Every structure is written in C-alpha cells, then in structure tokens.
C-alpha cells in the first residue's frame, strides 16, 4: 500500500512544473487532493447535484472566500493543465485505475476474511479512502483533459486566423505585382509616333543643326536636365555661341534629349523643304507659260517657211540640183511612223558609213500616210459614237449583223499596217540579194518583216533542185537569227491581249498579211522589248537597257543595226552553202573540198545509201535520241534528216541528224544506231538496241564533240558525214580484226584494235600521219 | 546538303573515259575502312567527266548525305548536286580510280595521278595534285598505254596498275618507284583483282592469269572463251571484269559471267542471265553482283539464281561499288550522267547528277 501511495505521489510530483522537495511533498499533495476534491463543481457540471453539494459542504469550513478560492483553484488547474502533456495524463490515468483495482481487491480480501479485527477494519477504511481518492483523482484528470482540449482548440484557431490573414496579404501582393508587371509591359510596348519618322542622320545633324535648337530643347525640358547646372551655364554664356558646345555634349550623351533635338531639327528642315518645293513649283509654272508662248510663235512661223520652200522649188528644179530623189524620200520619211523613221535613218547612216551594198528605200503612198496621221485619233472615237447611234435604231438581227460588220471593220483597221514601209536590200558577195520589207503595225506597236530572196544564178541551180524542204524559204531563212528569236511569237508582250481583242488565235495567222515580227526587226526600229522568256541575251544585240518603256529609241537601233545586217549576211551565205551541201548529199555523194585538212584521201568502203528529211515528230519518237531530247540539246525548230549508211550488205548505220537553225555556229548533232551482227544472234531485242546504241556513242562523240572547230565551218555537215563514213569503216574493220576470214579486211592504218575498258575503237584520225588512233 | 566544311570521305565513285555529249563512264572502288566515324553519313563521290563540248577530262567531287535525307519529307529520288570541286586532270580520258587511306588515285593515259584526300576534303575548288607517276613504257609510240585498272593491297602501300601495254605494274606508294612488273598477257589488261598475295588479271586476249604478287610470272591461267557454254563468240573473248575471294574467282566480259574454283581450276557456275557483255562484277560472300551492257544490276547467288534485279539510269554500266561500313551502299555508274545509289542494296533509292558548274 505504501508503494502505491508513493507511486501516486511521484506522479503528483511529475505533473508539477517545478519539482518540489520530497520532504515538503506530502503537505502539498494533501492540499492538492483537497483541491481535487473541490474541482468537480467547477468544471464537471454533469456530476449529480447532491454529491456536489455534499462535496461543497465538506469543503466549506476551509474556504476563506468562495469566489477567490474558486478562481485560485481554476487558475491553478489551468496552469497544471498547461504543463501536463497528453501522454503523461494517459499513464497517470492507467496507473490510478490499476491502483484502484488493486485496492478493491485488497478490500475484498479483507471483507471476505472471517475474523475481522480492528486492524483489518482500519485497513478496510484505508482501502475505502484510497479508492475514493483514486476516483477523485480520475475526475481531476478528466477535468484537466477537458481544459487541455479547449486550450489546444483555441491555439489552433489562432494559428488558423493568422495563416488566413497572411494568405490574404500574399494574394494582394501577388495581384499588385501582376498589375505592376502589366503596367511595365505596357510602358515597354509603347511606340511613339516619332519612331516612324525618317530622321536626318546623327552626324549630319550635329554638323548642321543650329545652336539655338539646343537652347530650345534644353528650355523645353529644363526640369529634366538636372536644372541649375546647365541653365546656370546657359545664363552665363548668353549671347556667345561657343558656350553651346557644352549643351551639345550634354545632349549627345543624353539619348532622350538628342532625340528631341533631332525631331525638332527634322521639323525645321521639313518646313524649309516644303517652302523650297513650293518655290520650285511656282518657277516651273512660269517656265511652262514661257514655253507655250514660244511654241505659239513657232507655229506661226511654220506656214511662212512652207511658203518659202514652195517658192524655191521651181528654182531648185531650174538648177536641177541632185536632191530630187533623195529629197522626195526624205520628204516621205517625215510621214514614217517613228520606229520606221528610226530604222530608215539608222539604215541610211549605216549605208553611208560602211556599206554601199545595202540600199534603203521608202515605199508607199505619201498622201495616205498624211491623212492617216491627222485623222488617226478621230476615227476611233467616231466609230464608237456612230455604232451607239445605230444600235438604238436597228432591229435585233440586223444589229447582230451590224456588229459582225463592225468587228470586221475594226479588225481590218487593227490589222492594217502603215501605208509607208521601208525596204532594205542587202547584196551578198555571190550576187544574191535579200530584200527586207519593214512595216509598222500601229495597233500592235510592232515592226514586221517580209523577206524576199533573189538568188544569184549559180546558187539558184542548187537551191531549186533540192527535194527535201527548201532551206532558203523566205519565211524561215532568218528565224533564230539570234537565240530564241523564232519569229513565231510577237516580242511585244501586249500583243497577246491585242490579238484576243481582234479574235485572232496567234500571230501565225497574220504572217501572210503582215509579215514576221522578228525581235531583231524591233531592235533595228529602236523598239526594245523585254525578252518573253529568259533566254541568254545575245551580246551582239542585247545589252540594251531593260527599261519597260517601249518607245522607239534611236540608240537601240544604232547599236544593233550593223550586227543584224552582218548576221543576216552570214546566215544567208551559210544557208546557201548548207543547201548546196544538202543537194549534194541528196544525190548520195559526200564530198569535202579536196586537199583540206582532216580529210581522208584513201578508199572509203562505206556508202551513204539514203538521205531523207524528217519532221520533229518522227525525229523525237526515235529511241536513239531519247537522251538528247530529254536534255533539250535539240530545238524543235531544227531541221531533221535521216541518213542510212551501208557497208556490204550486213552492216548499216542509221543516223538521225539535227541541223540547228543557227548552223553552222552550232554544228549538226548526229545520233547513230548501228545494225550489224548483233541482230542475227542476240535473243533479246531490247538488249541489242542498247548495246548498239552505246557502241554508236563513241562515233557520235567523235562527230558531235571532237569535230567542232575542225576544218571549214561552212562544210561541217559534209565533213561530219565524211567522218561518219570513215568511222564506220574503222569500226567495222577494227572489230573484224583477227577474224578469219575477216568480213571487212583492214584497209585503214591503226595500231591498237581497241583501248580501255569500254574498248574504244581508233576513230580519231591524225591527218599528219594518216593513221587512226584512239582519243 | 553539300557542306564543304564537313566533307569527309566515305565511299567514292570515280569515272573514266567519256561517252558522247554528256555521258559519264564510271568506275568505282570502295574502301570500307576509309570511313571517318564522325561523318559517316557524308559521302564523297568523284566523277571524271567530259562535259558537253568542252573536251575537258576532269574530276568532280560532290558530297551528299544519303542517309539523313531519306527520312525527310521532300526526299526526291532524283537530285542534282553542286560539285564541291571540279578540276582537270589530263588531256586524255581517265580510265580508272582507286583509293587508299591517304590518296585518291586516278589512272589516265600513260600516267597515274594522286591527290591527298585531306586536300580534297578541305573544300578547295582546285586541289593540288600530290604526285604523278608516268608509266615506264619502253617504246616510243604514238599510242600511249592507258591505265585500265588500279588496285591497292590491303595496307595501301602497293599500287597495282593493269595497263594498255599488256603489263601489270606494281608501284610502291611511299616512294613512287616501280616495284615489279608482271608480263604475260598478249593484249591490254582490262581488270585486276588483288587479295593478299593472290592476284588475278583479265585481258582483251581472253585469258585470266593468276599470279602470286611476289613472283613475276603467272602460275595458272584460265581461258573462259575456250569453255563451251561460257564462250559467246559474237561478243568477243575479252575479259572485262574479275574478282577474287578465297578459293573462288568470278569473271566475265565477252564470255558469259562465270564462277571458277581456284584450287581445281574448274568451272563452277555460268550466269547466263546476263546476256550482254559484262563490265563489272563483285564477289561478295554468298553473292555475285554484276552488270554490263544493259541498264540493270543483277545480284546472283552462287548457284546461278537471280536474287535481285535493279534497274539503272545508264544503258551501259561500267562501275559498281559496294561499301559495307558503316552502312551498306551500292553505287552504279555508267554511260549516263546520272549515278544510281542503293543505300540498302535492295532497290535503287537515289539518282544523283552534277549540275552544270559553268
């Protein structure tokens, strides 16, 4: 029992904030137990009222002042509760319970004892007391716990309030921050209008701007430029300009001020320039007036001059001055449309300067031209108003017919060329002449050409006997004179729309009526159109300004006229030569002027057995030319021929030849296919073709690549054919070498039968040594 | 696409003499060990071409990344590439090409030229020639012998050249001196193949000679044109291509493409499918890759069956190259200006050509 008590005492001591001395302990505990006894009425209202009262009654003698004591006890218990932790309270509770239990057991034992002496009774009493004490202590623990709970609830509430407050504050601050950021962004994004103004460059500004400007600017933002310092200096130096060097430096370092100053200067400058502009305009007005006045004077002068001219005509005739014919031409020239005029003048200049073999003449009716120039503009307006008048009067079907008529009329007028035309006759060295008749079509703003060729008797024979397509056809002898200039399309880009208006599909329909609008003809007449396609502009003709203004310009004409005439001469000469060659070839006879280098003089076994002119369609459908067509090495405007070469009866070469319009500057392109041996033996048709094709390629290269620049240009086609025959011989002979008996015995001199992994045959002919070698 | 700054060698194609107009004649060797691991995807190929009418014989080098482009959306199959450099080599046509780790070697007429790969990759438009060997021809003839075939030994120290004077020369690449010459053919040598000390050569005379590179006379010979079934008299008896591997040898030309066992010198298989002249063949483990005078590249197995048949842009193929590392690429060149590439060896996935630099 003692142990239990000491234990409970120890517990009492534990729950106290400050441990007290053990000796002093017992009274304190006792007092405390009293306190405990008092507690139930204070905090535990649920206790039954009689018991409460009994307790109260028990306590009352000791009470000094009920209120004070009550408060004291409460305060004390509160303090205790604050100190006592939850864990401690639990262990205390358990221990007390165990204590009560053991005491109960003891009491039971005592009660069951049969013979109870006084000692036992006292012990039983003690037991009772202890049980009551224990239960009271439990009550107290309960009270303390209640208080503890309340206390911690309050604490939690306080903390919560604090957290809420802080959170609110945080949110406010965040919102504020966001707002401020928005404001900052707004400020950053602000674009002042002055940024768009194109300002005078800074260096110039510093050089030119007057000092007063700085003054003004500084005055304007005097507050900004840290006040007294600058303004003081300004005051000191008022009147002398050198002082303003300082402000300038100041401004220079302050970007804002500088900007302001520059803006100010810009304003000044612009005002000044506007004033200048107005002045200049006024001056211009005055000049215009002056010009008008002078023009009026000149106009009055004209009839006077005309009458004088007429007056002196009889005199000129009387003296029979040489001017008669030329003057007449010149007179006509005045009525030429401006492009033809330029053409005529430049052609005359060219004739005088270089070449007496070119003659320039003006044809056509002068009177017509005269009337045309006067009434040209009126006519167009009249026809429109007239048509409107008619429309209202006539019936529907009539109207339709009328419209058709009107269209026809319009079309006629549009397609009419100027009544005057210029003819250039160019005489060639062999006596042939080519006549170019230039006409001007106002509606299209184009110069067209009609070509007539008078071939000299010795060349004419050759030209006429040709079976396959005439190379000297006036319609295309001059086409592709310069790259891309086929004459099929109008060089004036607006022509397409004009054609649509008069319901003509393409210029080709108009050629018989109007002639061919070659690009070079426009150039000769001073009309410089932009090329329709991005062709390499020929340096001879091109190089002109690429301006969009298409007005006749004598410069353009002067620059190109000589080149064009030279090119025409060259073209006609080479065409005549080509024609002669082709006529010769058509008679299956290949001859190159004897004694010329690069010609083999020995016996040639292969023979040309057929020569035919073919169309582009036939040419391009042949399998051998697929790569050539794909790489666009051949223009469809070329002339195409198919030649068949044979040696013996077994070996054949089919050659497809493309002769470019620019022959002989571009040499004819040969593509070959060889038929020999392979055909008899190989199973697969396609394979043979392939193989033979590749073998032919060696020969092709020899003809197309290596022959360029050998021998005389004019005879290149014949030379190529000659070499093709030779190559065929060498090819067959070298391939047969070693066969026994050889199908084609070796007649040419060569060292190696083949060379290299592709077994190149000795196709290169060395003239000095008269041998064939590989390249 | 052709970033010169990162050009590093991979496979390269070389192109020999030229055909008409714009044709290109290609031959090709691949050196798998030559790849630089950092730039494996860049591919240099050099072409020797005679452009149009300019009568030039030169090399064009272009770089194209064949692998990365494959994935991009606009992967066009046919593509023009700008040559990184173009330079003239000699007057005459060029016939052969080879490569070592250091040099690009080109054989022309009577001479062999070498360039340092380092120079070529540095992006100069006109790289300097590193060295040049003139063939030790004895006779003063108008017709100079051409170098038809170039081969290097595994270490890149010895260069073998099969030449137009029917001889095979071995040059020491470090000193440029003639090490040995091998006489035995009666006509000019078409092709060479060297594996270790074994060398095989094919010639216009139709013989295949087998050599030990340490001795200057041949020890065995094959005569495909005398064999029934191999001979194709209408196409001639010349041997245009040859390749060696272990105990097997494949050769073709005028006679049909055929596989021979070297120990027994017996004919093993005749590949009759390729019915045109054969210009190039490769023996690669279990398969034979061959092409010739027809626009297709055929993979055979060793028994004569066709494994693959790939069309080509050239009507006549003169060169096939097969690179295995780091990725497999087969390139095909011939009489067309276009080069074909099969980057996975199954089908043709690129056609490249040089745009005109002028």
Automatic annotation (TrEMBL), chain A:
Q: Where are the transmembrane segments?
A: none
Q: Which UniProt keywords apply?
A: Nucleus
Q: Which GO cellular component does the record give, naming just one? A: THO complex part of transcription export complex
* Any Pfam family the entry gives: FmiP_Thoc5
Question: Record's InterPro entries?
Answer: THO_Thoc5
Compartments in which it is found: Nucleus
Top-rank taxon:
Eukaryota
Q: Which parts of the sequence are annotated with region: Disordered?
A: 1-67, 371-413
* Residue ranges, compositional bias (Basic and acidic residues): 1-21, 30-40, 402-411
Tell whether Nucleus is among the UniProt keywords: yes
Q: Name one GO molecular function term.
A: mRNA binding
Q: Give one GO biological process term.
A: mRNA export from nucleus
Statement: the UniProt record of this protein carries the keyword Metal-binding: no
Q: Which family does it belong to?
A: Belongs to the THOC5 family.
- Name of the protein in its database record: THO complex subunit 5
Q: Record the organism.
A: Darwinula stevensoni
UniProtKB/TrEMBL annotation, chain B:
Instruction: Spans of WD repeats, please give.
Output: 182-221
The domain of life for this entry's organism is Eukaryota
Question: Sorted alphabetically, which keywords does the UniProt record give?
Answer: Membrane, Repeat, Transmembrane, Transmembrane helix, WD repeat
Task: Indicate whether Transmembrane helix appears among the record's keywords.
Answer: yes
Q: Gene Ontology terms, cellular component aspect? A: THO complex; transcription export complex
InterPro entries the UniProt entry points to: PQQ_b-propeller_rpt (IPR018391), THOC6 (IPR042626), WD40/YVTN_repeat-like_dom_sf (IPR015943), WD40_repeat_CS (IPR019775), WD40_repeat_dom_sf (IPR036322), WD40_rpt (IPR001680)
Which one Pfam family would you cite for this protein?
WD40
- Is Kinase tagged as a keyword? no
Q: Where are the transmembrane segments?
A: 6-28
The Gene Ontology biological process annotation of the record reads: mRNA export from nucleus
Family membership, please give it: Belongs to the WD repeat THOC6 family.
The molecule here is called THO complex subunit 6
